[in-house]
C-alpha cells in the first residue's frame, strides 16, 4: 500500500433496509459509488446486520415492512448499547406529520419521503455521517480528556501521599526509636475505621472516602516532634516534669504547622486530608475522660480521627521497644488498651480494636522493626 493509499480515508458503511427489491436496487445504485453498502430486506435481518461487522455508520430504514416495521426496528436499535449510536434515516411513503414526529421521537436522525431523489438522499446521508464523525471525534476527545484528568488526579494523589510520607519520615528521623511506627499506626487506623463503620451511627461518618483520608493523614500525627529540642527528644530514659511539658507541646506544634500551611493557600479545596492531619496531630493525645493534652478535650469533643489515632498510637508504643522500656507482648498490650476503655479511649473504638486484634497482630508482623519481633 502506497502512502497516498494510506492517506485515503476508508469508505463509510451504509445499511439500507427495505422489503422491496426494487427500492434496494435504486438506493444501492446511487450510494455504491460513494459508500460501502449493505442491504437487509426485513427488520430482524436489519438488527442482525447492524450488530455484526462491518458495523454500519448509518442506516436508511423503511418504515412500512411486514412483520417487524421500521418503528420496532429503531426501538430495538436504540435499546442495544452496541447499535444505539448509529444514526437512522427513515425512508417512507408516509407523509403525515404525526408519522414523522413518531419516528423522530423514537430517535431517528432524519426523514426522507418516497419517491426518493438521489441528490436529496446523498445530501442527507453525507450530512448525518459528518455529524456522526464529529460526535465520534468529540466522544474520543472527551474520553482522552477524562483519562488525562484521572491520570493527573492519580499523579497528584501520589505526590500528596509521597509528600506526607516524606514529612512523616522527617519527624521519624528526629525520633530514631520509632522504626516502622508510622506504617503500623496507619494500618491500625484503617482497620479500626473499617470496623467502626459497620455500626449504623458511623455509617455516614466513615465512608470509604473518609476512611482513606484518615488513613492517608495518619502518618503526620507526630510531625510536631520536629519542633522539640534534641535534649528532650533524644534523652535516654523518661523525661522529668519540665522536659515532659516540653514534649507535650509537639501535638499543638504539629497542628499549628499544618494549619498554617493551609492558610497560606487562597483555595483550600482538595485539602481535606490536611485538615484531618491537623486534627490528628493536635488531638491524638487527648483522652476520653478529659485528662489528656493539649486542650483537655473530653468524649465526642475529641475529633473521631484523633480518637482512632489514640488507640493506634498507644497500642504501637506498648508493643515497641524503647530505651526506657522493653516491648510488651501483644496480649499484655491488648489488656492495657481494654483497661483504658472509657478512660483513655473511646469505648466503641476499644471494642472495635478487640474484634480486630488479629489484624493488629498481622500489621505488626508485616512492619516489624529490624531489631525486634512482635
Question: Which descriptors would you attach to this protein?
Answer:
374 residues; Rossmann fold; Hypothetical protein af1432; 2 domains; 16 helices; 5 strands
CATH topology of the largest domain: Hypothetical protein af1432
Under the CATH scheme, which class of the largest domain? Answer: Mainly Alpha
**Largest sheet, spatial ordering of strands:** 2-1-3-4-5
Total count of helical runs of at least 4 residues: 16
Number of strands: 5
- What is the mean pLDDT? 86
Counting structural domains, the number is 2
- Low-pLDDT segments: none
Order of helices and strands: HEHEHEHEHEHHHHHHHHHHH
CATH superfamily label of the largest domain: Hypothetical protein af1432
Description:
By secondary structure, this protein is an alpha/beta fold. It folds into two domains: 3-143, Response regulator (Rossmann fold, 3-Layer(aba) Sandwich), CATH 3.40.50.2300; 175-366, Hypothetical protein af1432, CATH 1.10.3210.10. 56% of the residues lie in helices and 6% in strands. The protein has 16 helices and five strands. The longest helix has 57 residues, at 118-174. The protein starts with a helix and ends in an 8-residue tail after the last helix. The model has no long low-confidence stretch (mean pLDDT 86).
Please provide a brief summary of the model:
The protein has 374 residues and is an alpha/beta fold.
Topology:
Layout: H1 3-7, E1 13-17, H2 21-31, E2 36-40, H3 43-50, E3 58-62, H4 70-79, E4 88-92, H5 97-105, E5 110-113, H6 118-174, H7 181-196, H8 208-217, H9 230-233, H10 241-248, H11 250-263, H12 272-283, H13 304-319, H14 330-339, H15 347-355, H16 357-366
Parallel strand pairs: 1-2, 1-3, 3-4, 4-5
Helix pairs in contact: 3-4, 7-8, 7-13, 7-15, 7-16, 8-12, 11-12, 12-13, 13-14
Amino acid at each position: 500500500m502506497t502512502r497516498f493509499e494510506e492517506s485515503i480515508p476508508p469508505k463509510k458503511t451504509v445499511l439500507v433496509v427495505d422489503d422491496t427489491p426494487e427500492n434496494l436496487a435504486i438506493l444501492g445504485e446511487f450510494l455504491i459509488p460513494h459508500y460501502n453498502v449493505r442491504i437487509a430486506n426485513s427488520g430482524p435481518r436489519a438488527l442482525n446486520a447492524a450488530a455484526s461487522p462491518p458495523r454500519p455508520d448509518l442506516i436508511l430504514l423503511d418504515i412500512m415492512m411486514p412483520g417487524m416495521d421500521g418503528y420496532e426496528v429503531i426501538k430495538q436499535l436504540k435499546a442495544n448499547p452496541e447499535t444505539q449510536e448509529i444514526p437512522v434515516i427513515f425512508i417512507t411513503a408516509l407523509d403525515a406529520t404525526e408519522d414523522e414526529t413518531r419516528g423522530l421521537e423514537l430517535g431517528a436522525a432524519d426523514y426522507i419521503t418516497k419517491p426518493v431523489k438521489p441528490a436529496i438522499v446523498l445530501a442527507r446521508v453525507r450530512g448525518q455521517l459528518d455529524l456522526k464523525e464529529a460526535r465520534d471525534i468529540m466522544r474520543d476527545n472527551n474520553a482522552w480528556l477524562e483519562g488525562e484528568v484521572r491520570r493527573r488526579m492519580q499523579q497528584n494523589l501520589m505526590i500528596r501521599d509521597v509528600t506526607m510520607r516524606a514529612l512523616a519520615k522527617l519527624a521519624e528521623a528526629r525520633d530514631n526509636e520509632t522504626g516502622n511506627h508510622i506504617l503500623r499506626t496507619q494500618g491500625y487506623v484503617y482497620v479500626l475505621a473499617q470496623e467502626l463503620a459497620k455500626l449504623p451511627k458511623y455509617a455516614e461518618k466513615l465512608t470509604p472516602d473518609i476512611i482513606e483520608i484518615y488513613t492517608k493523614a495518619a502518618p503526620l500525627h507526630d510531625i510536631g516532634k520536629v519542633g522539640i529540642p534534641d535534649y528532650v527528644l533524644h534523652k535516654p530514659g523518661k523525661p522529668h516534669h519540665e522536659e515532659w511539658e516540653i514534649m507535650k507541646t509537639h501535638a499543638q506544634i504539629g497542628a499549628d504547622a499544618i494549619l498554617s500551611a493551609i492558610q497560606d493557600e487562597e483555595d483550600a479545596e482538595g485539602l481535606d486530608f490536611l485538615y484531618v492531619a491537623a486534627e490528628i496531630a493536635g488531638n491524638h493525645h487527648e483522652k476520653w475522660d478529659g485528662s489528656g493534652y493539649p486542650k483537655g478535650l473530653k468524649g465526642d469533643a475529641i475529633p473521631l480521627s484523633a480518637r482512632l489515632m489514640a488507640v493506634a498510637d498507644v497500642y504501637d508504643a506498648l508493643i515497641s521497644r524503647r530505651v526506657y522500656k522493653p516491648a510488651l507482648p501483644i496480649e499484655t498490650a491488648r489488656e492495657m488498651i481494654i483497661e483504658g476503655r472509657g478512660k483513655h479511649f473511646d469505648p466503641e473504638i476499644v471494642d472495635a480494636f478487640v474484634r480486630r486484634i488479629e489484624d493488629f497482630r498481622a500489621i505488626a508482623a508485616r512492619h516489624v522493626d529490624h531489631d525486634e519481633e512482635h
